[in-house]
């Protein structure tokens, strides 16, 4: 790492890999923001967010077609998660949205975080699978109360959540699974008039990346404890121009020699209601490097985006001007990032070191 290249990586577009299927009602309002994973058959799969009319989202499964070492298309294999639980549906809304999946070898499971768009708005939930096809819901996430924050994190909507692939050391010194998340501080979105509230010690009210932990021992006792998060810490907030409005996490952190590589999104523009399909924003992809032993500590970050909306597919769609990275996979020794394009299609980009 050098001052000129604090994060020695670049992203290079390789093309569009998935577009809405004509006549498919589940995809009428776009395919976007996929999770990913390798099935027991060794094949690479995407788990795209499929958006039906009325902004109702499901999670699909699609095998990635690779030609000459590059992802070029997908073959659909159905829907694996849909809002069929009461807490995933409201009177006028429903959704299982924006899945992120992490293969956690210590558990022998794919662990999915997703957004349940239920009666009170977006809420993070967890599901697990051995094969990417059959998912067992563990339920909505609960944040243990932490008195030094002077705030209950369960009050807030929360998105952009993703687990690390291997245990780390928690602040209390125990072995833990770590998870990144992005609290939304505007309580007025849930109860009008409450306004923006932030925990003690937080001076910047813009939405930022946080980390929480789950003791490994507790998960070994009961897998359902993956939903009980504790030891909450601020990680990173908006700092550079392309992050002026807010930032949020992306794919599962990738272990690199310097620590953990975290691709994230930075947002500029004007945010309407948190629940509306935005029309006046710009989402670009940047990167953080987190310390290997203390992943709550940022040791480097990109002052400018690695990928910003420039192509027609990224600039025109349900939500224009969006590059939203959500998955990283290795194909023939190279890493590719899959990302949402204008909330309408899914693209891929090659992730390479620059040193």
UniProtKB/TrEMBL annotation:
Superkingdom: Bacteria
MF term (GO), any: hydrolase activity, acting on glycosyl bonds
Gene source species: Microbacterium mcarthurae
Keywords: Glycosidase, Glycosyltransferase, Hydrolase, Transferase
InterPro entries: Glyco_hydro_beta-prop_sf, Mannoside_phosphorylase
Family listed: Belongs to the glycosyl hydrolase 130 family.
Name of this chain's protein: Glycosidase
